[in-house]
Amino acid sequence: MNRSVTVLSAALGVALAAGLAATPASAASPAPEFGYTAGSYSGSAAEQADIQAFHQAVMKSALAKQAANPFIQTVYVTYDASSAPTFRTQISRSAQIWNSSVRNVQLRSGSNADFRYYEGNDSRGSYASTDGHGRGYIFLDYRQNQQYDSTRVTAHETGHVLGLPDHYSGPCSELMSGGGPGTSCTNPYPNTNEKRRVDQLWANGLAAFDKGLTKTAR
C-alpha cells in the first residue's frame, strides 16, 4: 500500500503574501500517502521534515495576510476546493471538524488561498505535497477514497497542512494513523493529543509573528 506524505525539493524561505498556487503536474512527484498498512511505520525523518515544511509555508502565507489585523489571536487559513468538486462535501466537512476541534487556527473557503485541493487518479493514493518554495496542495485520489472513508482521508491530509505528521501505528481513534487501522476505520476526528498539538503549533506561529512585528516597530 502507500507510504507517507510530502515532497520537498529545496529549503523553505519565502514569505508568502499571495497564497500557495501550484497544480499537481507542476510539483515534484510526492511520496505515496494514507493507505500504508504496516503497523510499525511512522514516516521517515525526511518525510516528517517535508510535512513540517508544508505546514510552515501555509502558516507564513496565512500570517502574512493577517498582518493588517495583528491583534486577532486566531489565524484564518484559506483553502480553494474548486479543483476538487467531487470532494467538495468531504472538504467542507473536514474543515468543520478541524474548526470545532482547535481554537488557534480556523479553515475557511475562499479566494487568494493559502493551499488548494485537487482530485484525480494516482496509483500512489492521496497526499499533501510541497515543492519547497511555498507552493503546495492536497491531492485526493478517486480509488483510495472509495476504499477508505473519504472524510477521514480528507481530514487526515488536512492535518498535514496544520502541522501533524503520520503515525500509522496508531489506533483508529488517532486521525493521523491514516490507513494503518485498515479500511474499516471511518473515524474522521483528531484525538485530544492531535488537537492539542495543532493549537500549540499555531500558538507558536502567532507568538513568532508578534515578535517579528515588535522588532519591526523598533
Automatic annotation (TrEMBL):
It catalyses: Hydrolyzes proteins with a preference for Tyr or Phe in the P1' position. Has no action on amino-acid p-nitroanilides. Keywords: Calcium, Hydrolase, Metal-binding, Metalloprotease, Protease, Signal, Zinc. GO terms for cellular component: extracellular region. One of its GO terms (molecular function) is zinc ion binding. Its cofactor is Ca(2+); Zn(2+). Pfam families: Peptidase_M7 (PF02031). Residues 1-27 form the signal peptide. Coiled coil: none annotated. Belongs to the peptidase M7 family. This is Extracellular small neutral protease.
